[in-house]
Amino acid sequence: GADPILRRAARSVRPAQPNPVPPAEAAPPGAESGGAAGEITMYYQPQIAIATGEVVGVEALLRWRHPRRGMVDPEELIRVAEQSAVMRLLTRRVVDDVVEQLAKWSATGLGLRAAVNVSVRDLHTGEIADQIADRLTRYGVAPDRLQLEITEGALMADPRRVLTTITRLHRIGVGIALDDFGTGYSSLQHLRRLPLSEVKVDRSFVLGMAEDSDDAAIVRSTIELAKALGLRVVAEGVEDERTWRMLHAAGCDAAQGWFYARPMPAEELVAWLARYRPLRPIGGPDEAD
Ligand code: C2E
Ligand code: MG
Ligand code: MG
Ligand code: MG
Question: Is 55 in contact with 276 (CB distance < 8 Å)?
Fold first, then answer.
């Protein structure tokens, strides 16, 4: 039968026109459960240490293949879900799936770390911290295998309650990343006050940095600032080799993007990892200008 979470979401999500998810990311035909609302799954995108080419973790990204509308734009799905209790249900599902997946990987000797995106409302109560603590214990997954990605928008909504929740998670050992850095408000306050382990440079700056010197300057300053504060810095949206080299020259710790791999289902990730040969910026940085 159809998933009740999806039946609720299905009523409000518009068809994506044109389909914004590239065909390479699409699930194979027949992957649907047959339920009228289709199926939600997690896709995983590798994160690569720039200096060594080593895979340091994955970001878990929600995918919903609607039976008639095809792959729904995740941002649209999240935006709609956030207006109701659907978001809470989705987040619970995502946390369950990802912690279970971490346990499965661990059992096969894959010591991956996974990052999960959470929304504004998820952090307003302690519920998510309770759930995460419970699942980590139940599946025997070490807390430092899990990271939460929060956005500055989420922080602005109710900074005090959000701070309480993420401080609890930080204390049990779950990493906290500030996502889409540079696109929200009061970024510097957040960097100073929150128990962060990582900053993610928003893809809107990274995508343009090879062509646009302003974008490049913003990315470089963000990397420098994050490192000065003792935070790991990850660039998202790395689509080409030139950008990768520029990030290497700028001292960025890790990157994710189509240059390395698109988000993919868990089974595909295992095959990708088996094929993967670390890429290194041969001959050192040549884009330091
Ligand atoms: P995000 O957390 O900033 O995720 C990064 C986005 O960049 C993902 O979009 C990813 O597919 C995309 N991306 C990765 N590499 C490249 C690249 O090289 N080029 C380009 N152009 N894009 C790249 P996606 O999967 O469409 O997700 C969009 C947003 O939806 C996410 O942005 C996140 O804010 C939200 N989201 C996704 N899954 C979840 C979830 O499980 N829960 C919540 N609350 N939000 C989610
Ligand atoms: Mg993210
Ligand atoms: Mg982001
Ligand atoms: Mg985003």
Answer: yes
